[in-house]
Amino acid sequence: MIENSEKEHGSGIAFVFKIFELVYLALGRISSTTFFRVLKRSQLQVFPLIVVGAVFLCILNFPLQSVTGGLSESLRKLLEDIVNGTYGVAALVLLCSMSYNFGVMHNKKGSGEYASPNLFVIIALSCFFILHGDINFSSFSEIASLGKGIAQAFFVASVSSYLLHKFIDFQMRIPVSGAGYDLFSREILSLIPACVAVILIFGLLKKLMLLSGFTNLQQLKQHLVFATVNFSDSEFLSGLVYTLTSQILWFFGVHGPNCLSFFDSTLFADNIAANIAAVKAGGVPPHILTKGFIDCFTLAGGSGLTLSLIIAILLKGSDSGIRRISMLALIVCVFNVNEPLLFGIPLILNPVYVIPFILTPVLTYCIAYTATLAGLVPVISSVVHWTTPALFNSYMSTGSWSGVLLQIFVISVGVGIYMPFVVIFDRVAKKQYEQGLSEVRAAALGSGRINGYKCLGLSGFEGFVARSLAHDLAYAIRREEQLYMVYQPQVDVDAGKIIGAEALLRWNHPSYGHIPPEVVVALAEDMNYIDRLSYFVLRESCAQLSVWHDRFGKDFFVSVNFTPSLFADEKLDEKVMACLHATQVPADCLEIEITESVAMSSNEWELKNLNRLRKRGVRISIDDFGMGHTSLRYLRELPIDKVKIDRSLTFGFLDDVNMHILSSILDLCQNINMKVVVEGVEDPTQLAQLREMGGTCFQGYYFSRPLSGEECMYFMGDWGRKDSKNIHAFKAMELGWT
Questions:
Q1: Which end of the chain is more exposed for a tag (fewer CB within 10 A), N or C?
Q2: Geometric angle at alpha carbon 218, from 216 and 220, rounded to 5°
Q3: What is the pLDDT of residue 304?
Q4: Helix H or strand E segment including 298
Q5: How much is the pLDDT for 137?
Q6: Helix locations, 391-459, DSSP H
Q7: Are 612 and 570 in contact (CB under 8 A)?
Q8: Mapping DSSP to helix (H, G, I), strand (E, B) and coil, where does residue 595 land?
Q9: CB 676 within 8 Å of CB 695
């Protein structure tokens, strides 16, 4: 009986997790579409304006009269100008940002027909003003402000950019082949038909609006709201309709409370007036539904009960960026201004948060209304300023601690509703980041460049990932934090000993974890930080080698990768020797690895640097040997001590082609007395084949993964206590390390 109950309980939990996974996958797919990626990026670009505007809006509307009353007229005018210059133009800024990002996406995912993203902005602006008709200074705030123009900006930017994208893909162009040397003029001229077509479509939309009796989008929007939202004979239903409609409007970018202001001036105003009059007359307030009731119990922190969302993020969120945004938004959210959160996460048109954003206030409204109707909380009969912080506003409105307890309860309910969606949002964001990082890694491994950069020239989301990582990497390099070295031992199987280790750079990002080394190197090259990074690697590696020498004697060397740009440094040999002297490491215990491409393209100055280092006793090796076209002549002319055979030739099963290549390289190096290390050895079959070909020195996961300096020291100490001839028996212990 108990066993059956446990099985049913387990299957129930499994079913819940299955549903959770399906919801996560569905929302992830929706959030990854071009539209929602552009929307999120554009709202984040407007975020600085929103934050500044929110802070100064709170100052202007601070709930204490002693604060706002003490502002001079000139200071108040300055604060109002700042709010108008941020909140007052946010919709227009969002329009420009969205259309520009749509243009970027067009160039990335279109049919190959390039169009300047600025052209998308110009057409969107034109269409925006066409729909709004005659614009003067008095009406400008009606279309450009955060509270009144966001929905129109979403609509116009999305539709105009989509149409322009499609018309360009449909080859709606003027043929300009051979039209002259001014290529930019040719491009703009060729796109005139597509631009005209989009503008004409919006002109047609404007004509249809006029025929319907509306002069602009604002009037049409208000009419649609009035047509669908009406008072109910039931006070409870009227409040429910207000709450639900307000949330739906905000989700689509329409300022719900502003758009439903007729509730404030009629139903809410009449109800609170009746309550105040009843209390003065010594009676019982008759109306539960007031603006104060909505502010306290359904809009705590702002529309969407976003105070609950902030708490849920701080309790359950794992994305450090979103947590920082939430902490920043909390500064103004406590005063019930939630626009920074709406645009910072963002919440507007966010498919992940659509359910809790709309339904949480509806549920808390029902809970609070029921509690008040049951007499658990006094009916609100006083007016409290809308920026009064949570807990304070509930106490001041109800005059009772029971009002505070009710507000705490509904906020807690909201936290519980938001929590699973916070987890889903983090997972979706992480997946998008991983996809972007994968694109950045592919660019880092490739040979191509965009505008002279390997990664920073990328567009779209992956470009954003690259730039964000580059900023963080520059900080890490300057502070020499988050960066560290690991070491992969090199084993001479015939001699039965470890002869050295290759130093490998690692970056443990505080938010994203370990970043692929090839991305780190490519970003450092793009930012001209590669030399500084290379010397950091040299210093750390020599310092670690010095520790090993103190423990085991000077029988070990460390191998360090040097980038091509370092060999242009006239004082390279002096800097290397200074590092060796500071760490008391003999020159012949340092091995500098250069890529085969560097060996092939070395100019006279680079060759001089190589020879100087070699004469001072430093070893030189060619990394990734076998992937290029280095010939016997280059091996003879360059000051090379060793070659490392690229792991792509040894990875996995050794077919006939790879075996012939490897055998040829090993024979070649043996004939000219060149030392060889074979990389990428991962299983005993590989090792046996490579030994039959004449290989003796190896590096790879069969022996050890890359280890920290301390782990590597223990590894070398353990190796010395084993039967060095029995490599395969040693592998059994190593399984725990890989």
A1: N
A2: 75
A3: 87
A4: none
A5: 53
A6: 392-398, 401-445
A7: no
A8: strand
A9: yes
Q: Are 238 and 166 in contact (CB under 8 A)?
A: no
Residue 387 falls inside a structural domain: yes
CA proximity to 381, closest of 369, 404, 398: 398
Which is more confident, 603 or 4? 603
pLDDT tens-digit series, residues 214-240 = 887 777 877 777 777 777 778 999 999
With a cut of 50, say whether residue 732 has pLDDT above it.
Answer: no
Domain boundary among 224, 252, 287: 224
Q: Taking each helix axis as running N to C, give the angle between helix 235-251 and helix 354-373, from 0 to 180 degrees, rounded to the nearest 10.
A: 160
- Whether residue 211 sits in one domain with residue 280: no
Indicate whether 150 belongs to any domain. Answer: yes
> Do both 404 and 495 map to the same domain?
no
Lowest mean pLDDT among 10-19, 499-508, 720-729: 720-729
Higher pLDDT pick, 408 / 68: 408
Provide the domain count of the chain.
Answer: 3
Which residues, including other chains, have CB under 8 Å from residue 276's CB and lie 6 or more apart?
381, 382, 383
φ, ψ of residue 345 in degrees (nearest 5): -75, -45
β-pairing, 497-509 with 513-515?
Answer: antiparallel
Distance CA 401, CA 235 (A): 25
Residue 200 and residue 268 share a domain:
no
Residue ranges of the alpha helices (H) in 32-89?
34-60, 65-68, 73-86
527 in the same domain as 408 = no
Residues tagged active-site: 679
Residue 102 buriedness (CB in 10 A; 0-12 / 13-18 / 19+):
buried
- Residue whose C-alpha is closest to residue 312's, from 418, 425, 423: 418
Give the model's confidence band at 728: pLDDT under 50 very low, under 70 low, under 90 confident, else very high. Answer: very low
* Spatial distance between the Cα atoms of 318 and 322, rounded to a whole number of angstroms: 8
Counting Cβ atoms within 10 Å, is residue 283 exposed (0-12), middle (13-18) or buried (19+)?
exposed
- Do 508 and 552 lie in one domain? The reply is yes
Asked whether residue 59 carries a pLDDT value surpassing 90, the answer given is no
Q: How far apart are CA 252 and CA 348, in angstroms?
A: 6
User: Domain range holding 38?
Assistant: 11-20+23-224
| Inter-axis angle of helices 517-526 and 460-479, nearest 10 | 80
Would you say residue 125 has pLDDT above 90? yes
175: helix, coil or strand? coil
Mean pLDDT, the chain, rounded, equals 83
Both 680 and 568 in a single domain? yes
What pLDDT band is residue 602 in, cutting at 50, 70 and 90?
low
Q: How far apart are CA 566 and CA 593, in angstroms?
A: 12
* Final residue belonging to a domain, choices 224, 241, 265: 224
